């Protein structure tokens, strides 16, 4: 078990470092946009990208997950056919879809209510969708073959191009929001070109239509589920725009993006998790590994939640050469950040739970669960936004994630039962709840004390969280022993050789 967990941890770290770097570079665009664009302009960009999220699901129609399933087992066709068949399928369909969009640009712009002067955005979007879709299978190959470093380098390169072009086009060429989409199109095209060696080495003209049929049968159920998932993630933007205005959407998006750090954890975990659970599914202790992984993930995400909740406002308001991380005109939405963080936390839980559905080929359960989350999100948005504005949108999304996690657990326990460590989950939730109650109901910051003392108070609360976890005996004896040896090794600059049973007690996993 230790070896598998070590591999998952290593690949997660690689994906994580690259994702953190890439997302950080991308996140730099948020303060950039808030300082060069009005909230209304940023709202239009946010709205269009929320629509792109839905279009991506239709363009990919579940082929990535289907590729992982059949390339890992080679049930049908050769290894070359398992690459070329899904790859060419996406090439053909993405080109057809984008050509269709290009032919009816004006009607589309009118239907989705894009101002006439920004109608060219639709053409750029069509190109972005095509290039990104064609790159899906080559990227999946790198993940399946555990080439995390190459995957990471290409992803970061893509984002770096995008960031540099955004700055050049918006600041120096004054292209306005069109420059944002031109940057995205260029970055997507260049990224696809960097994947040509991956494509050429694995491409074969011998296709297997029996494999294509199997891929479609496995992947197509992902379309309604994927659309519903996107509805959970981004439907709040179009609804918020319909019930308020572009400026509110811009403020909401800028602050929603401050949840990036929790999103990073979920993203880098998902990148490594999917190929990992497929690769160890046949091992006798696979379920025990899945349960322990979720415990560690939940503990880590809870700690990140507390850190960001306590310090995000301080970070945002730091002044750099007279400018802030987020322009003051966007600060009205800072209070949604803890709600956003909790939403991502429950998304991380669902990511872990979903393994059972894919391993047992029960993907037909995914659409009902996703639709339930989407229905809850849409209904809650329409109920809460009129009275709570952007805060209603944030609460609606959190509620949807919670409902989906609960529903997913109920279903998975029927098809792939796993004994999760609920006792330890309860200890994490209890410690977080106590610390949050103290933070919100002990108005230490209102006593007129210095900023240094306020920071010290917040650090003390984080220490309280760890103390409560220790007092409730969350950490098992062998884990404490491992942590102690790792700490001693840091002091002596030595790396200890840990025995298998020092990391995990097989009887208590």
Outline the fold blueprint:
Blueprint (H helix, E strand, L loop, with lengths): L1 H26 L1 H8 L2 H22 L2 H11 L5 H25 L1 H7 L9 H14 L1 H9 L3 H25 L5 H17 L1 H7 L6 H11 L2 H13 L1 H8 L2 H11 L3 H21 L5 H31 L2 E2 L2 E2 L12 H17 L1 H5 L6 H23 L1 H26 L6 H20 L9 H21 L5 H16 L7 H4 L6
Antiparallel strand pairs: 1-2
How does this structure look, described?
This protein is an all-alpha fold and 509 residues long. Among the domains are: 62-219, no CATH class; 421-433 and 443-472, no CATH class; 475-509, no CATH class. Helix content is 78%, strand content 1%. It is built from 25 helices and two strands. The chain has helices spanning 2-27, 29-36, 39-60, 63-73, 79-103, 105-111, 121-134, 136-144, 148-172, 178-194, 196-202, 209-219, 222-234, 236-243, 246-256, 260-280, 286-316, 337-353, 355-359, 366-388, 390-415, 422-441, 451-471, 477-492, 500-503, and strands at residues 319-320, 323-324. The chain has a two-stranded antiparallel sheet with strand order 1-2. β1 (319-320) and β2 (323-324) form a beta hairpin. α4 (63-73) packs antiparallel against α5 (79-103), α13 (222-234) runs parallel beside α20 and α17 packs parallel to α22. The longest helix has 31 residues, at 286-316. The chain is globular, with a radius of gyration of 23 Å. The termini are close together.
Residue windows where pLDDT falls under 50 for at least 5 positions: 490-509
Which word captures the global form?
A: globular
Topology order in helix (H) and strand (E) letters = HHHHHHHHHHHHHHHHHEEHHHHHHHH
Number of strands: 2
**Rg, alpha carbons:** 23 Å
Structural class: mainly alpha
pLDDT average, as an integer? 86
Q: How much helix, percentage-wise, in residues?
A: over 70%
Report strand order across the widest sheet.
Answer: 1-2
User: How many angstroms does the end-to-end distance come to?
Assistant: 10 Å
Count every helix, treating DSSP H or I runs of 4 or more residues as helices. 25
Main sheet makeup: 2 strands, antiparallel
Strand content: under 5%
